[in-house]
């Protein structure tokens, strides 16, 4: 399921571009990229990350997972890395989330009463990246929708993301509205409606489901 989501996200990447991969499902996106001019960036100070194949045990990404560096990679300090993000030099950020609201705003850094990894670079990426893609399972482990009318966890930024990719569907976010763009294989429109709390608009042709 996670691999399917990552593969669909990878299809959105066309080089030349600089891409920041968040923690979780986003790290799998690199498995499906063969374009040599898609350059992966990590906010702890490396441009030219390789997250598949050979890794250097002395190098980690922002999620503290071992990574490698491809030929021509550049190293820099964290302040310069965040300067790249805030300066608009990251073309695409792919983030994991806890929740998405129907306006495309996300919560991905805090659960009240629990200790998780924290905001990291997500807030800066939402402000500075030219395009933000979310990858997530459509529901929680107990079957509750992650696409909500309103996030119940603290939001990461007031900026809406540009695309939401789940194991059920792909949504574009246009003018702070969720637009259902695609259904994942063997998923029906009725199933998406049943498992989504947030309001969304059906747009385009969805497999065999013409829009009326």
Automatic annotation (TrEMBL):
Question: Can the keyword Cell cycle be found in this entry's annotation?
Answer: no
Say which domain of life the source belongs to: Bacteria
Question: What Gene Ontology terms describe what this protein does at the molecular function level?
Answer: CoA-transferase activity
A Pfam family matched in the record: CoA_trans
Q: Does the keyword NADP apply?
A: no
Listed SMART domains = CoA_trans (SM00882)
Ordered alphabetically, the record's keywords are:
Transferase
Family that this chain belongs to: Belongs to the 3-oxoacid CoA-transferase subunit B family.
Tell me what this protein is called.
Succinyl-CoA--3-ketoacid-CoA transferase
Tell me the classification of the organism that encodes this protein: Bacteria, Bacillati, Bacillota, Bacilli, Bacillales
